[in-house]
Amino acid sequence: TEITLDPEKWIYKYADEGTWQYTMIPMPLDTGSQYVSYHDTIIVRGGSGTRQYSIISGSPPEGLELNSETGVISGGPRGSGEFVFTVRAVDEYETHQDSCEFKLSILPTSGFPGDANDDGKANLLDVSFIINYLYRGRLAPRVPAFADVNNDCKINLLDVSYIINYLYRDGPDLQIGCAL
């Protein structure tokens, strides 16, 4: 009626005597799409304390950044293609480090600024689409950067005004924004 697990405490006694190897796991990064929000993580095991991540050669596409404390790569890639870069991670006491080369594929996104509803045109339907998204909780634009036509990194009523001015008042050209 009674079970005693590990009565000699073998597991607890020897659990911390092994050497922990510091290793960056060479997991492939997720493929992303140009102008679409991206998020992936570089994984490291072993070592002690917190880690510091840095890119030591090459670079991800413009619009993506590596968080030096978490190893998260995120943002909105502005370019497309194959990007090769090497990441190094160093543990808190700078006693362990590892690096690994990563290849990131970013697929090109078709479309252009102002085409918020993804129908191949910039017109009054895009204005309606943005208003429905902002004020009626409808679907977000597939490529948010195409709806951020004034490039202020937000999708708001100013973008609606910008599109109307472009379409009907010979306003400035629509821009690809940075909204994600």
Structure report:
This protein is 19% helix and 27% strand. It is of the alpha+beta class and 180 residues long. Strand 6 (64-66) and strand 7 (72-75) form a beta hairpin. The longest helix has 13 residues, at 124-136. The relative contact order is 0.15.
Percentage of residues in helical conformation:
10-25%
Taking the alpha carbons of the first and last residues, their distance comes to 60 Å
Number of H/I helices: 4
Mean pLDDT: 89
Strand content: 25-35%
The run of helices and strands is HEEEEEEEEEHHH
Describe the biggest sheet? 4 strands, mixed
Global morphology: elongated
Low-confidence stretches: none
What is the tally of beta strands?
9
Spatial strand sequence of the major β-sheet: 2-9-8-5
Structural class determined from secondary elements: alpha+beta
CA gyration radius, whole angstroms: 24 Å
Give a short summary of the structure:
With about 180 residues, this protein is of the alpha+beta class. The protein is about 20% helix and about 25% strand.
Secondary-structure map:
Blueprint: H1 10-14, E1 23-25, E2 32-33, E3 38-41, E4 43-45, E5 51-58, E6 64-66, E7 72-75, E8 81-91, E9 97-107, H2 124-136, H3 144-147, H4 157-168
Parallel strand pairs: 2-9
Antiparallel strand pairs: 1-4, 3-7, 5-8, 6-7, 8-9
Helix pairs in contact: 2-4
Give the key terms.
alpha+beta, 180 residues, 4 helices
